[in-house]
Design brief:
By secondary structure, the chain is mostly helical. The protein has one domain (4-229). The chain has helices at residues 4-29, 34-56, 77-88, 90-97, 101-106, 114-122, 128-153, 162-188, 201-239. The radius of gyration is 19 Å and the shape is globular. Mean pLDDT is 86; it is low at 233-237.
C-alpha cells in the first residue's frame, strides 16, 4: 500500500511545480519589462499564497449550514479576472503573445498529477467513479502536452499547420477533462473530505483555475497565429505572389 504521507508530499510538490511553471511563463512574457515581471510575479505569488492560506484554514470546508455561494467557486475568481484581462487589455494580450506557443502547452506537464489521484484510488482513499475519469484524463493530458509541445515548436512556420491543429485538439481534451472534474469533485468531496483538506484542496484552489487559463491562453494564441497566416495569404494573393 502506498504511504499516504508520500502521496501528500508528492501532491504538494506538483502544486508547487505548477506555481514555478506560472513564474516561468511570466518571465517569458516580460523579458524586456523588469517592472512588469516583478508585478506579475508578486501577483502570482499572492494568488498561490492565498490558495495555501485558505486551504490551511479550512476555508473550503462547508459549514453548517453551507454558505450561499460554495467557497470552492471562489477559486475561479482569479480565472475570471485573467480572462477579462485577456479579453479587454491590449497590453495583457501583448504579453501573452510574447510567450512561445509551445511553452503554453509544455508547462501543463504538471497535469501528470492525475497519477496521484489514481494512487489514492489504488489505496482505497478515493472512489473509482471520481478517480478513473479525473486521474486518467489528467494523466493523458499531461503526457500529451510533451508530444504536442514538441510538434507545435516545429510548426512555427506559417505554412505548417499540423502542430497547431493537434494543439487545438489537445486544448479541447484538456478543457473537457477539467469541466468533468469539477462536478465529479463537488459530488465526491462531501463523502471524502480529503479532497477539501491540504494538500489535495490546493489542486482545486490553484492548479485547476491555472490550467483553465493556460488552455484559454493557448487557444487564443493559436487563433491569433491562424489569423496572421490568413492575412499573409490574402496579401500574397492580392499581390499575385
Amino acid at each position: 500500500m502506498i504511504v499516504p504521507s508520500l502521496l501528500a508530499l508528492a501532491t504538494s510538490l506538483v502544486v508547487f511545480s505548477s506555481f514555478v511553471g506560472a513564474l516561468w511563463l511570466v518571465r517569458l512574457a516580460t523579458v524586456e519589462r523588469p517592472r512588469t515581471r516583478a508585478l506579475a510575479s508578486v501577483v502570482s505569488l499572492a494568488w498561490f499564497a492565498l490558495a495555501i492560506v485558505l486551504s490551511a484554514t479550512h476555508f473550503f470546508v462547508p459549514g453548517t449550514p453551507p454558505p450561499p455561494v460554495p467557497s470552492l467557486a471562489l477559486t475561479m475568481l482569479p480565472l475570471f479576472v485573467l480572462v477579462l484581462a485577456m479579453t479587454f487589455s491590449t497590453s495583457f494580450r501583448a504579453r501573452l503573445d510574447a510567450i512561445p506557443r509551445a511553452a503554453l502547452v509544455r508547462v501543463q506537464v504538471f497535469r501528470l498529477s492525475g497519477m496521484l489521484v489514481l494512487a489514492h484510488w489504488a489505496g482505497g482513499a478515493l472512489p473509482v467513479e471520481f478517480a478513473l475519469p479525473t486521474g486518467l484524463g489528467s494523466t493523458l493530458v499531461g503526457l500529451a502536452s510533451i508530444v504536442v509541445a514538441a510538434r507545435l515548436a516545429r510548426s512555427e512556420s506559417p505554412d505548417v499547420t499540423e502542430g497547431r491543429t493537434l494543439a487545438k485538439l489537445w486544448n479541447a481534451l484538456g478543457l473537457l477533462e477539467l469541466a468533468l472534474a469539477l462536478p465529479l469533485g463537488a459530488k465526491t468531496a462531501p463523502t471524502h473530505p480529503m479532497l477539501l483538506e491540504l494538500p489535495m484542496v490546493t489542486v482545486a484552489a490553484f492548479l485547476v483555475p491555472l490550467s483553465f487559463f493556460l488552455h484559454f491562453a493557448s487557444l487564443r494564441s493559436l487563433r491569433s497565429r491562424d489569423s496572421l497566416q490568413a492575412q499573409g495569404v490574402g496579401s500574397r494573393d492580392r499581390l499575385g505572389v
